[in-house]
Design goal:
By secondary structure, this protein is mainly α. Helix content is 68%, strand content 6%. It has a three-stranded antiparallel sheet with strand order 2-1-5. Strands 3-4 form a two-stranded antiparallel sheet. A hairpin with an 8-residue loop joins strand 3 and strand 4. Helix 1 runs antiparallel to helix 2, helix 1 (2-42) packs parallel to helix 3 (97-136) and helix 2 (49-89) runs antiparallel to helix 3 (97-136).
């Protein structure tokens, strides 16, 4: 029985890992789409009807990718939930796993429907803001409210509150807007349903479904690395000059 459960656990772990990898690929593809949209927006003819039509199509594809990414994450959570249930109850050999997984998926879908909608809306809002800022930086985007403007102006830390290191694949907690490194916060959450936000003084909770990619933090980290490398090169140039 023990060896059977270990094989079962390994199978579920592989499925969950595969789904997470697919979700990460879609997240990466969304980033590529955003770069294409920014490039198009920078074109001199960005405001003509044909260009606007293409941008709208890109936005629709972006929404579709958000939806598939959410489905992959949900399936991974479903598989992990069934795995934990199986390890606790040790079901018999005749268990129809496909039916169990489908039932659990529908249950999770109903429970997280609003969170999924909010996740897509926030990702889309970030996408729209990035494209909007190409030609309208400093101007409020249509639909902005006071809370969004405040969040956009908050001083951003590029260090992960969990690891203390530079943010890596930064994700934002929808509940409190704090940003963490993806792998670090996942390790903190572990097999728990949710945990307290690790930021000092924050009383909000964080779970896997409350995390969304933070492209603003990604840009801040890239800019920091770029500036650091630039300073290093300049410092080396100064040293070489003094040794001449």
């Amino acid at each position: 029985m023990a060896s059977r459960m270990l094989r079962l656990k390994a199978t579920f772990d592989r499925q969950a890992t595969t789904c997470i990898e697919y979700a990460e690929q879609y997240q990466s593809h969304r980033g590529v789409l955003e770069k294409i949209a920014v490039h198009m927006e920078r074109h001199p003819d960005w405001d003509n009807p044909r260009a606007k039509s293409k941008l709208e199509k890109l936005r629709d594809i972006y929404v579709g990718m958000c939806e598939v990414e959410n489905q992959m994450k949900m399936h991974a959570s479903t598989v992990e939930g069934v795995r934990d249930w199986a390890l606790q109850t040790e079901p018999d050999l005749n268990t129809k796993w496909a039916q169990v997984i489908e039932a659990k998926k529908e249950e999770l879908k109903r429970a997280t429907l609003e969170d999924q909608k909010r996740s897509i809306e926030e990702n889309l809002r970030e996408y729209d803001r990035t494209v909007w800022n190409v030609n309208h930086r400093g101007q409020p985007m249509p639909g902005d409210d006071d809370e969004e403007l405040v969040v956009a102006e908050v001083k951003l830390s590029i260090k992960c509150p969990v690891s203390g290191e530079l943010l890596d694949k930064p994700v934002r907690n929808k509940e409190c807007k704090h940003v963490y490194s993806y792998e670090s916060i996942l390790q903190l959450i572990g097999k728990k349903t949710r945990v307290n936000c690790p930021c000092s003084g924050c009383n909000k909770m964080v779970n896997k479904n409350s995390l969304i990619r933070d492209q603003r933090a990604e840009r801040a980290v890239k800019e920091y690395i770029k500036q650091t490398e630039k300073r290093k090169k300049q410092s080396q140039t100064d040293i070489d000059f003094t040794q001449m």
